[in-house]
Each structure stands twice: as C-alpha cells, then as structure tokens.
C-alpha cells in the first residue's frame, strides 16, 4: 500500500486521496506550454461570494526573473526546497473592489479557488505544496500590487523528486506517515 495515499474512513475522489504536499521536487522537470492551463481553469470556476471572483495568481516558471523574485521572499525551510519546483504561484486575494468596497469573503473565496486548482493539478499528475512562510510586503513590492490585492500564500508545483535530495530534517518529514484528525474530532453534530 502506498503510504502517501490517504487512508480515509469514507470513499473520496482519487485526486483527493492521492494529494499530499511534497517538498522533494524534480529540479529537471519543466512544464510544456499551456500544461498548467487546466489548473487555472479549475480555479476560475470556483464559487465566490456574489460571484466577485476575488482571486489573482502570479505564475512564475523556474529560471524566470519572476520565479527568482518569489523565491527570494521565502522564509525558513521553504528556501531549502521550493527552488526545485517547476513553478511557483502567488495566490492573491482582492480584499476590496476598485471602488474601495470591502470584499469580506475574499480570502475564503481564494482558498476555494486554490483548492480547485490543487485537485485539478493532482488529477493531471502534478504535485503541489502550499506555503505561508514568505514576506508578503516583498511580494507586493516586487510585483507592484495595489494595496487592495494581498498575497495570501504561495504554491510550489511540479513533478515529484527524490527525498534523498532534501536535507535530513526535511527528508524525515517527507517520508513520515500522513496523519489527520479523526472525523469525530472535526465534525460537530447537533441534532
């Protein structure tokens, strides 16, 4: 049995059971032109409050100036592995519209869009790892984002590489069994 496939208590879609967050990416893998289009199409069709679609994405392929800018903002362990991903994606929430009206569900809606993107990517054989450890102000400055656009997370995407290429502390985490809370710990039933 593959230890990376989630052992679920009820059947789920294969793309969900097989999804995990690797740190070992194949640093020789590159995406052909338009290979990531399906991921972004899935994100585009995510639900959003009042159909505001308050998400934006910066896609940067390894070797590009934009990739280097994003990689330079990564913090901690993220700097040790994320540069091997074939691409980095900055996930951005539009916190207010052009007239200044707050979009209070923007971050939630962005999360749904990123989840759709993730499931589509997994179903296409790509792997992703979400990161929160980065300098948001540096991203905003590097890409000249208006104040109403807030970088929320960064996604590394690519093909799986060898865990042997990771530093020992990260290798252990990469190979450790997957765990989750049990359903009765997260679902509150009130009848």
Automatic annotation (TrEMBL):
Annotated ranges, domain Nitroreductase: 17-65, 78-158
Pfam family, one: Nitroreductase
UniProt-listed SUPFAM superfamilies: FMN-dependent nitroreductase-like
UniProt KW keywords: Oxidoreductase
Gene3D superfamilies: NADH Oxidase
Keyword Transmembrane helix appears in the UniProt entry: no
GO MF term list: oxidoreductase activity
InterPro entries: Nitroreductase (IPR029479), Nitroreductase-like (IPR000415)
Keyword Thylakoid included in the entry's annotation: no
Similarity comment text for this entry: Belongs to the nitroreductase family.
The protein, known as: Nitroreductase
Species the sequence originates in: Leucobacter exalbidus
Origin organism lineage: Bacteria, Bacillati, Actinomycetota, Actinomycetes, Micrococcales
């Amino acid at each position: 049995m593959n230890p990376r496939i989630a052992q679920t208590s009820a059947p789920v879609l294969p793309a969900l059971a097989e999804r995990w967050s690797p740190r070992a990416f194949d640093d020789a893998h590159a995406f052909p032109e338009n290979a990531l289009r399906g991921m972004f199409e899935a994100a585009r069709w995510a639900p959003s409050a009042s159909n505001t679609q308050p998400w934006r994405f910066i896609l940067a392929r390894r070797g590009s100036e934009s990739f280097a800018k994003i990689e330079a903002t990564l913090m901690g362990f993220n700097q040790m592995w994320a540069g091997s991903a074939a691409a980095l994606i900055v996930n951005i929430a539009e916190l207010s519209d052009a007239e200044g009206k707050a979009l209070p569900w923007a971050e939630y809606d962005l999360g749904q869009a990123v989840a759709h993107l993730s499931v589509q990517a997994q179903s296409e054989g790509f792997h992703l790892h979400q990161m929160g450890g980065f300098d948001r102000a540096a991203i905003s400055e590097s890409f000249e984002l208006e104040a109403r656009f807030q970088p929320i997370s960064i996604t590394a995407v690519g093909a799986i590489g060898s865990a042997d290429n990771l530093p020992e502390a990260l290798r252990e985490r990469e190979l450790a069994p997957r765990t989750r809370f049990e359903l009765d710990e997260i679902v509150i039933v009130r009848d």
